[in-house]
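Work Package 4 report. The design task specified in the project plan requires that, given a folded chain encoded as structure tokens, an amino acid be chosen for each position. We show below one input record used in the internal validation round.
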């Protein structure tokens, strides 16, 4: 689907080399946005996202940085500033999608302190400081969209530490929406259910795994990155302007 709802806007999508982030990058570009395709380690995959966007007539470029600390956020923004100023004459942008994340965790019993700290560093600390350090770069009337998870609504205790990180992201979303409302910036969380990406590939592509996921959704199928990307695009668009501080369920009606 191509439209110009986001024409001339600049969107930064973290973790857009693969999976849901790639889907979001493709969708926002199809809406006319210039998309910054962030990646952690897989530059080639990020370049592939850019190629797919360009092949569809869109505009995008990559920025790489592993995100897990304030320092890493500052490195990303320095790199981003240089590339944005070179292309647009300014380092301002309109849409920030905090999508990069570690998508699973060990069982409650097996989670180590290092696992716990790493999950919170990547899934909570990095988006926290990325937003904080982006406040002057983000234009008034802009959008922040945090990719959370359905596990903040549905009990799924075998990935406990991961679930807690997404709960923190929802809380961040609520308070940030109040803080940034006076600038006309909306802040929302989108909460996917089971989506067919690398993080689920090993179990989801077995007959039992497929049945489990299909039966979970009221709509009777497995979610695709585009299912999430369409909701993000709505939230990013002018049509989404009156929705803020919300946790938008994108689980295909899982566990209704
Ligand atoms: P994925 O396929 O594993 O992709 C993860 C993306 O995040 C990649 O682009 C990766 O970059 C980047 N990333 C991971 N750790 C990073 C780090 N430390 N620094 C910088 N970038 C990092 O994941 P996904 O399934 O698309 O999930 C995307 C988001 O949706 C995550 O926040 C996840 O929690 C959430 N989610 C997923 C599901 C699901 O079922 N898939 C459900 C609910 C919520 P590189 O590839 O370049 O390393």
């Amino acid at each position: 689907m191509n439209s110009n709802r986001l024409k001339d806007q600049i969107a930064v999508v973290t973790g857009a080399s693969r999976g849901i982030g790639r889907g979001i990058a493709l969708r926002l570009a199809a809406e006319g946005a210039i998309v910054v395709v962030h990646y952690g380690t897989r530059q080639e995959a990020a370049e592939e996202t850019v190629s797919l966007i360009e092949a569809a007539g869109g505009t995008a470029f990559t920025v790489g940085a592993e995100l897990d600390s304030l320092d890493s956020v500052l490195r990303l923004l320095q790199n981003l500033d240089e590339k944005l100023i070179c292309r647009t004459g300014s380092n301002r942008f309109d849409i920030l999608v905090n999508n990069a994340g570690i998508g699973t965790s060990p069982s409650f019993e097996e989670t180590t302190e290092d696992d716990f700290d790493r999950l919170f560093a990547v899934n909570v600390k990095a988006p926290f400081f990325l937003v904080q350090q982006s406040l002057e770069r983000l234009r008034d009337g802009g959008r922040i969209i945090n990719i959370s998870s359905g596990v903040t609504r549905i009990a799924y205790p075998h990935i406990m530490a991961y679930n807690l990180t997404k709960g923190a992201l929802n809380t961040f979303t609520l308070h940030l929406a109040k803080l940034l409302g006076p600038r006309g910036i909306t802040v929302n969380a989108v909460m996917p259910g089971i989506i067919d990406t690398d993080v689920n590939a090993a179990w989801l592509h077995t007959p039992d795994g497929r049945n489990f996921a299909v039966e979970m959704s009221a709509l009777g199928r497995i979610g695709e990155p585009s299912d999430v990307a369409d909701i993000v695009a709505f939230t990013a668009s002018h049509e989404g302007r009156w929705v803020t501080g919300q946790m938008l369920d994108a689980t295909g009606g899982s566990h209704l």
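The domain at 10-250 is CATH 3.40.50.720 (Rossmann fold). Validation will be extended to a larger panel in the next phase.
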